[in-house]
């Protein structure tokens, strides 16, 4: 009887204070859960003319594991960090057009709602990483999967792609395409024909192996 009475009292409290709880309490619970279930993957990329490991010319581009494990909307909104120069903005805008042309994703300029995917484009400067072992780190990119399991449940990707201004010729379209690919869920490939090959090949067009990987993520 005690527990039944307690349950009834608790139910009445929630009923009478629904609007207050919805505005002030439940968003905090959702945010806390979201922080716990957030998964982030940032991949640093380099450039050199030497091959890396074995090359499989017919290998399908892999998918980032944290993206393969979830279902994402194919619509993204993108923003630029304030310190991103015009040259960086231009190459990322060009990369956006190339991915949109596949018809598999829809990348739009603008600020998303909480339940929508977001991409942040920007820059960083890392002199040490730009000159390690004869390689030059050109950029970093990756998805940031956040799963909300509170009052409402949804999954969003809040990934980012940045170019290393200390890297040799980092501000170029091939690098922007590669880093944006990471955000959308594409992982490094052993296929030198792929834009996701970890050593920059100067490729500015998505290959069939890249498009097929995007299909596994976003095609309904």
TrEMBL record:
Q: Where is this region: Disordered?
A: 37-56
Protein transport as a keyword of this entry, yes or no, is: no
GO MF terms listed in the record are: metalloendopeptidase activity; zinc ion binding
Can you give the residue ranges of the Peptidase metallopeptidase domain? Answer: 68-220
- Looking at the UniProt record for this protein, which Gene Ontology cellular component terms does it annotate, in alphabetical order? extracellular matrix
Which key words tag this protein in UniProt?
Hydrolase, Metal-binding, Metalloprotease, Protease, Zinc
Polar residues composition bias: which ranges?
Answer: 37-52
BP GO annotations? proteolysis
Q: Name one Pfam family in it.
A: Peptidase_M10
- Specify the protein name: Putative extracellular zinc metalloproteinase (Putative)
What is the originating organism of this protein? Amylolactobacillus amylotrophicus DSM 20534
